[in-house]
Each structure stands twice: as structure tokens, then as C-alpha cells.
Amino acid sequence: MRHKNITYITFFCFIMFFISCQSQKKGIHENVSNFFDFEKEYYFDIDNKIPFQTYLVDSIGQLTINYYPKSNELINDYLNFEKKYKISSIYSEIDDTYYYSANDIVKIDKILRNKIRNNTKYYKIIGIYVPLKFINRDSKEEYSVLFPYEREIYSLDKTGNWFFVKKQVISNYNEDDLLKVNK
Q1: Residue 65 forms part of a structural domain
Q2: Cα–Cα dist 61/29, whole Å
Q3: Which spans in the chain are helix H?
Q4: Which pLDDT value is given to residue 124?
Q5: Which 8-state DSSP code applies to residue 177?
Q6: In which domain, by residue range, is 49 found?
Q7: Does residue 70 belong to any structural domain of this protein?
Q8: H helices of 34-138, where?
Q9: Interacting residues of 163 by C-beta distance below 8 A, sequence separation 6+
Q10: What is the three-class DSSP state of 95?
């Protein structure tokens, strides 16, 4: 009888361990999706011509929300965004990149916040999570993502819930293409 009780206890412990591991796996994705925050500052991607939000959460890593317009009208609006709203990008020879002035960043945030708020149904919304272990903190305000890195892709469904889509390994800068995330 004692041997039978030990067998039941062992079996019960194994089942509890298995359930715990499965819920932990699921819990990781559920926890990440809780950190996608639509109230963060909006930016405009100069290269891909889409609105996005990106920010660092100290406890988990970098989160980015990309807004891919669904209609041709919105796509064209973003293709002409800078001209339409009289925003000029500035070229940095040091970094070989374009950026916006502090005043334009505030202006962009206000424009995009008004455009996107209550109109999310006109966008395919994709969330990207990069775990903290791939983040290099340069200062309190600045950080960079170290190659190679892993990222998790999430999609926002029609009911407003995030669901996990896939995990990607990004080996170099050329593979880090936002437009490929949307495919």
C-alpha cells in the first residue's frame, strides 16, 4: 500500500510540474503583451514611412509597436507625411542617419496620436519584444540592441488582444527589417 501511495505522489508531482512548465511558457507571452502601451510617444519611421512607438521597460526589455496602414489612402498619406505636415528630417553625417528635431518629434507625436487614436481598425498593429539580455545600456536615456538577438512578434487582433506570432533570430543589421515583420 505504501508503494502505491508513493507512485501516486510521484505521478501527481510529475503532472503538477508539467502543468507548471506549460503555464510558465504561456505566461511569458501573456506577461510581455501586458507591457505594450499605446500611451507611449509616437514616432514616424523615415525609411518605412509608418508610425511606431518604441520604449524600454527596465524589467523586461525593448517593446515596439508598428502601425501598418491597411488602405491605399493611408499608405499614400504616410508616403507624403513629411511634406503634408511640413516636417523636415535632418541628416547626420557622423551616424549616416536621418532624424527629426525635438520640435518636430513633439509635432509628430501629436499628429500621430490624433490620427491613430480611435482609428486602430485601419492599421495592422504588430508588437515586437526584444528581451533585456540583448540590450546594451549606454546611459539612463540611451540603449542599443546587440546583434545577434532574438525578438518575439505579436499581433493585435480585432478584439484588442495581443497574440504571439513567432520568434525571430536577427543576426545582423540587414536582417532587421520592419517590413518583413508584417509578412
Answers
A1: yes
A2: 13
A3: 2-33, 72-79, 81-84, 102-116, 178-181
A4: 97
A5: -
A6: 35-181
A7: yes
A8: 72-79, 81-84, 102-116
A9: 33, 154, 155, 157
A10: coil
Cα separation, 6 vs 86, in Å, equals 75
Q: Which residue has the higher pLDDT, 80 or 10?
A: 80
Q: Which three cell numbers stand for residue 128?
A: 515586437
Residues 79, 57: Cα–Cα separation, whole Å: 31
Q: Global pTM?
A: 0.81
Measured CA angle at 147 (ends 144, 148), to 5 deg: 140
List pLDDT tens digits, range 88-144. 999 999 989 999 999 999 999 999 999 999 999 999 999 999 999 999 998 888 999
CA 120/CA 11 separation, integer angstroms: 48
Residue type, 43: Y
Count of domains forming the chain: 1
Question: Which pLDDT belongs to residue 16?
Answer: 38
First-to-final CA distance of the chain: 59
The number of angstroms, rounded, from the C-alpha of 92 to the middle of its chain's C-alpha atoms is 26
| 62 within some domain | yes
SS3 167: strand
**Cβ–Cβ < 8 Å for 181, 153:** yes
Report if residue 125 sits inside a domain. Answer: yes
